[in-house]
Amino acid sequence: MRKPPAIFMRFFRWFCRPELKNYIEGDLVELYNERLFEKGKRSADVRFAFDVLLLFRPSIIKSFRGIQPVNNPAMIKSYFTIGWRNLLRNKGYSIINIGGLAIGMAIAILIGLWVYDEVSYDKNFKNYTRIAQVFQNQTFDGKIETWGSQAMQLGAELRSNYSNYFDHVIISTFPGSHKLTFNTKTINMTGSFAEPGIAEMLTLNMVQGTRTGLKDVNGAMLSRSAARALFGDEDAVNKIIRVDHEFDVTVTGIYEDFPENCSFAAYDVLLSWQIIGPAMEQRVGWGNSWFQCLVQIRENVSLSVASQGIKDAKLRRVLQVDDDARFKPELFLHPMSRWRLYSEFENGVYSGGGQIQYVRMLFLIGIFVLFLACINFMNLSTARSEQRAKEVGIRKSIGSLRVQLISQFFFESLLVALLAFIFSVIIVQGALPWFNEITGKNIAILWHSSWFWLGCVGFAIGTGLISGTYPALFLSSFQPVKVLKGTFKVGRNASLPRKVLVIVQFTVSVTLIVSTVIILKQIQFAQSRPIGYSISGIVAVPIRDAVVMKHYDVLRDELLKTGVVEEVAASESAITSTFTTNSGFTWYGKDPNRTEEFVTTGVTHEFGKTIGWKIKAGRDFSRDIASDSSGFIINESAAKYLGMKEPLGETVKWGDNGEWKIIGIVEDMVTQSPYNSVKPMLFFLESNRIAWVQFNQVNMKLRADANAGEALNKITPVFKKYDAENAVEYMFADQEFGKKFDDEKRIGDLAMVSTVLAIFISCLGLFGLASFVASQRTKEIGIRKILGASVPQLWKLLSKDFVMLVVVSCIVSVPFSLYFMTDWLLQYEYRITISWQIYAVAWVGAIAVTLLTISFQSLKTAFGNPVRALRSE
Amino acid sequence: MKKYQLGEFEEVVMLTVGILYNDAYGVSVKKEIEQRLSRKVSVGALQSALKRLEDKGYLKSHEGEATQERAGRPKRYFVITALGKRALEYTKTTRENLWKAIPEIALNPRFTG
């Protein structure tokens, strides 16, 4: 007779109520045999399996009553009592254990909060899943560049021809600082000119007014805090305010401030698009991607479909009206859910980088640091196992089951974990202000979120279980006879897992040290990069009113007369951020297929002198030579880019702007990212040929002996004279330049902190182990001393084992750190190479710290009086 | 009023047990229902219904013979108890009362307009 599938039969026998088992099994077998006969084995097997699975229901499954409960409340109470007494008896170990775990958990909680903050970015928006920004990929010189900016014409185009995809299409300016004036009071607020749908799209929480407020031709909506700043307790709605000393607008609504972790957090004012839109339509075309285009996709349309659908929306238009078609613009949608974490593009597709890298990195660090703390716990518990062996032996002989012992040790580790958790919450609360400072966030413990507490308690218990498993299994495995006879010795092999764990700990620590050193070196490397000009003492004043440039020469004279200014020059963009680019250049010998792009900066004659650029060939602009108004000064990169043997004196044609002669070549200057190679740059003078170029900055070089504060006091009135309405703002070039390192510095800080903590936790564990080993070998040391061993010999004896472990860790860590950091460095064009010196520094550091940690114990033992060591007992 | 609680499937099972009289055990009940009502009955559903009915006291069971095709496992025969009989009768009368209460027009609607 054939048998039904054994696995299902066993499963059935396992779960079925004992009193029903025989009968139902009989039924099942009877049915099986019948089916076997009628339909064959395969069908019978399948049906049998189904029958068994369908029997798996509450009324058939056996209850747990049959199993005797291991613990009753009295026993659990006893576990806690014993655990607590153990903690009190070994105060040193307890402090190391709980302290280490608490620090590890605090880091994990902080990082958890940070990750939560990052991941929940923008989730406050009701239409979170349907909002997207229109991006474009364009091909310049064979390279695809991805822009988040669009031409203003795209809005109307998407609205009229692609309306089946979108609920809302909004064109807006990028957020910028705007001056809001009411009566005599002026405040600076960040915001945008935007089309009215934005209020509905972002589901603004209106405090006053309705979401239609931007439909008003001169409408403006303020955030609650902006309204309070400008109007105080007065009613703001329907008041007329002046924006940027230029437009009068009516406040039509007040909305609740955006939460801090969203992309619109900075938006304190929304201005009607009608204020600037119509006036711009004449002069701003498809070629000017100056705006952002936000869309809300219809509910029944998928993002990928819409994204595919609009791909050629721009191309189709520019084929008719503009010459931008040669850049092959392809549009795509970048959804809100990816804005924060996945916004880095390479060759037109997501590069795999962006903020998510840091989220992953920190997450990893958090887990590792916590893991290190868990390892401490495991090591210290197993190391002290001999002390508790007798207890285990007696318990077992009295009748404890292994399960009971395991649960006893689990309770002890849970106790430690819970205590550590309480301390960690205190640590987190204390560290949050400082943590917020280095992360630039505003995170708080989610006191009122039950999920947070649930998560934390679960996490504390999880930590207790992870760190308690190994000790519990190990300690409960002792054989009572051996232990109680007194011959019990934990063999050599018993310390092997411990050694492995120490190696793991220090591998992580050394990897972190190496990474930190590399990050800091990379920052330092970029900071000390020769930038080709001088940023110290350069102050830029943004021009807020074009009138200033009409009086430029007089202004310059007066500034020079103040005696604190060495040189003055106006320029199109600030020297530390030259992001204006232009194309349409042709020159002799140019590859006609090349779609070139140059960074272009309009300047006045003394610009070079002001910033101190270094002329490599040719000459600087000169006021005495009139033809310089059609001259270019190019940088070395541009010279290389043009591909001419001797570019000096050659001419370059710039679209409709005529021919330009190259009169000088300057050394490459770092004006954009200090980590990237320098782009080809062109400098030219202000003239009628390029009347459309707007000068936005007056740059001044202060005298070396001038006091900055005093100098500003003298400069301010001069500017006030020509632009009385606007407050004079200052930008110090060195500060602006310094900001370029902020992101990396932040990572450097975080890496540094986590490294220090990782080392601290690892050393804490090592310290505990060292003191344990030292106390174990007290007698041995005593005898050695009597026989004539010297202190250095003993020190070496006690330290050798640990140092060996750290050396092994150093070697093991090499592939990890090499892999991670090579990958990290790849994102920078201008980067250091990882050298053996970095490793040398990290290794020497790690070994030195180890020696310091264990020497305290080993020297204490080595110096101890042998008589006392041997007399005890 | 929840005097006698009897679900639809439970009722079917009880009636079938009644039909089979001294021969009602798992497989026979299953087959009988499948044949008479032409619907599939899984062993699980049947066994849990039988267990529920026994817990309620509508059915009682006794161990029967073990046969070869059952690999030596005994059968478990079910019979209706007095309480079970009352429950069935109660269900039947409530149904009939309900039937009677339906007005003629509801089941044979005539269109007057």
From TrEMBL, chain B:
Domain Transcription regulator PadR N-terminal: 22-89
InterPro entries assigned to the protein according to its UniProt record, in alphabetical order: Metal_resp_DNA-bind_regulator (IPR052509), Tscrpt_reg_PadR_N (IPR005149), WH-like_DNA-bd_sf (IPR036388), WH_DNA-bd_sf (IPR036390)
A Pfam family reported for this protein in Swiss-Prot or TrEMBL: PadR
Protein name: PadR family transcriptional regulator
Organism: Ohtaekwangia kribbensis
